[in-house]
């Protein structure tokens, strides 16, 4: 599918993708990384688009890239054309609805796994395969490039330019918790008031580029409460490595109430107020597949049965997250 250009030729959608990436990033290196192309190839595509349109789209200096007036004028048209292009390809993809659907459920034992299990019951003739990798920020890039079909996480924590290319459906307000060494003074409590964490240094994924949305949520929660965010550190993989790190630094770990048990630790819900982690089902715009339909129906059914989308009166959630969750319910 191509679009007629003013010069009488046809615009390759790749050129519009190049333009849109640079327009949203305002940085050629980041835009090239986002598209998985060399910066030289990206610059070449932008120059070609400018020639075909007969307009300069960007002002470039050694320090910054900005949109020209023509670039600003093209931006909404480019977004609409690419959205229509993706929808057309999805609608007419041969055999796409028969292929297995790859779903990232993050961690075994969470609500995400229950949604996947219910979806498999609703669509027994379809293959929905699970992947277990932490972080919606990392998963989002796989969604956009087609290496992954669906994931779960905090949608508001994604870059707005990324959100614009994805769809989401609220699944649950997940109550948050703290994972503590079993001999930690707060471990004796049945629930930990947020005020009791004042003076503590709490790990929330800082340093992990795949979980930026979770670290950002922790930053909002800790701000003004005297709770320090643990400095960046490599993510501990495996129960034994997790146990070793916990024993060494003794930092509490921010989690959700259904986080699986870890050796020599206890999980305690957070209260006063109850912090909520907004969980959404996320997939690429234009993706049409019976497995997505089953996941969406499963999320609706479980939310209704379990009260997942009931927000408690004493619940805490960032304002941006609340708007995104409420706008789709």
From TrEMBL:
Domain (HTH lysR-type) ranges: 11-68
Pfam families: HTH_1, LysR_substrate
Keyword match rRNA-binding: no
Keyword DNA repair: no
UniProt KW keywords: DNA-binding, Transcription, Transcription regulation
InterPro entries, sorted: LysR_HTH_N, LysR_subst-bd, WH-like_DNA-bd_sf, WH_DNA-bd_sf
Top-rank taxon, per record: Bacteria
Family classification: Belongs to the LysR transcriptional regulatory family.
Protein's recorded name: LysR family transcriptional regulator StgR
Biological classification of the source: Bacteria, Bacillati, Actinomycetota, Actinomycetes, Kitasatosporales
Gene designation per UniProt: stgR
């Amino acid at each position: 599918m191509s679009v007629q250009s003013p010069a009488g030729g046809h615009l390759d959608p790749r050129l519009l993708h190049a333009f849109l990436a640079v327009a949203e990033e305002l940085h050629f290196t980041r835009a090239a990384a986002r598209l998985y192309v060399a910066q030289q190839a990206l610059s070449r595509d932008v120059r070609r688009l400018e020639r075909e349109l007969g307009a300069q789209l960007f002002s470039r200096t050694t320090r910054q890239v900005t949109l020209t007036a023509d670039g600003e004028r093209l931006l909404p048209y480019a977004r609409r054309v690419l959205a229509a292009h993706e929808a057309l390809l999805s609608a007419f993809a041969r055999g796409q609805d028969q292929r297995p659907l790859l779903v990232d459920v993050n961690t075994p034992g969470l609500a995400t796994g229950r949604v996947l299990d219910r979806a498999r019951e609703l669509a027994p003739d379809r293959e929905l395969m699970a992947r277990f990798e932490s972080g919606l920020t990392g998963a989002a890039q796989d969604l956009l490039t087609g290496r992954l079909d669906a994931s779960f996480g905090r949608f508001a924590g994604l870059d707005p330019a990324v959100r614009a290319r994805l769809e989401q459906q609220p699944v649950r307000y997940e109550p948050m918790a703290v994972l503590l060494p079993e001999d930690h003074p707060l471990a004796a409590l049945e629930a930990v008031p947020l005020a009791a964490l004042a003076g503590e240094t709490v790990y929330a994924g800082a340093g992990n580029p795949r979980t930026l949305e979770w670290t950002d949520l922790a930053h909002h929660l800790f701000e003004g409460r005297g709770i320090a965010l643990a400095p960046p550190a490599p993510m501990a993989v495996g129960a034994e490595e997790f146990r070793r790190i916990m024993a060494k630094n003794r930092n509490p770990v921010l989690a959700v109430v259904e986080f699986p048990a870890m050796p020599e630790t206890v999980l305690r819900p957070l209260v006063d107020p109850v912090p909520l982690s907004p969980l959404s089902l996320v997939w690429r715009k234009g993706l049409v597949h019976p497995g997505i339909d089953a996941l969406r129906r499963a999320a609706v059914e479980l939310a209704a049965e379990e009260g997942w989308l009931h927000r408690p009166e004493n619940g805490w959630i960032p304002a941006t997250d609340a708007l995104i969750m409420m706008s789709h319910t």
